[in-house]
Amino acid sequence: MVRFKLVDAANTAGIGATFSGASEEEGYDGIHTYQVNIASAASAITVGIDGSLDGVLWTELVEHAFTGGELTATTAMFNLTGKPVTFIRGNVKTLTQNATAGAGTDIENVVAVKQSIVKAMDRSVEDTDELSITINTNPYAVTADITTTHADAAAVYAALKVAIEAVEPITVTIDGDSLTFEANVAGTPYVINTDLSNDDASSTGVMTVTDSLSVANVEAVAQVEQTLLGVDMVDGDTISVTINGNDYATTFDATDADLDSHDEVMTAFALAITTGEVITAAFDGTLTITATANVAGTAFILNTDFAVTPAVELSVTILGRVA
Length: 323
Fold this sequence. Notes:
Layout: E1 2-10, E2 14-20, E3 32-39, E4 42-52, E5 59-65, H1 68-73, E6 75-80, E7 87-97, E8 101-103, E9 116-121, E10 130-135, E11 138-143, H2 153-167, E12 170-175, E13 178-183, E14 192-199, E15 209-215, E16 224-229, E17 238-243, E18 246-251, H3 262-276, E19 279-283, E20 288-293, E21 302-309, E22 315-322
Antiparallel strand pairs: 1-22, 2-7, 3-6, 3-22, 4-5, 4-7, 8-16, 9-13, 9-15, 10-11, 10-14, 12-13, 16-20, 17-18, 17-21, 19-20
């Protein structure tokens, strides 16, 4: 009978040391029994036992994935027969710690942009021309008349500007024979239903209007950062994050009536972030925390991602015995 330890408290996936029989004739040709022990709660553990006759080329003899019951018990045992080999080794293929914090649905911050359109006329408004435009279904028109206050192009443009700004959330800027229509509020669009034009009554002819510069409206979008835990937190686990240079961490403490359950820890953690930042952090009652900027377009910095530090680091040990 031979006893051996193929893997000793491994914290990462990988292959353990090689073990050989006392002689090539002896080897490992009996009934193999393997026990795999894990320290700390895990959500997935898979191990393999490899065999070889020359110690150079290896074949996996058996793979074992922990069942739900084995994960709860933190141990598993399995046997292997009918595969005599000279050399054996253990292989930790998968080990996933409980309550790890993964990424959820994130939304990037978007800064609002003011809609702006510059309309350039190829000539000035002349006497008897009617300059018109329809914005947000509201029509605006001013006629040039040398006998009135609208005696020239500048007066017509100024009158049109006053009429539009009295009704629309728009600022009109005059630059020679160009008019700029800019939304007063970034992210609040307007619609030009019919373009700037003139009802020509002069001898010059209908003017041509071109959009020399156009900036589309962009609505602000609130930044969202979300984390999704693998499983509930347990006593001693700590959830943490750094936002805008500020550290936030909450630890599950079975001796504290306010922090002795998964829900209480997650709720307290979310509240700390909401209190310390211009952010609303919300716990969904299961495994997710969502942090949303209070002001759309105002970003926050996630210096370090959401993370869960377990009370005990996950490790895997593989013991073996050959009869």
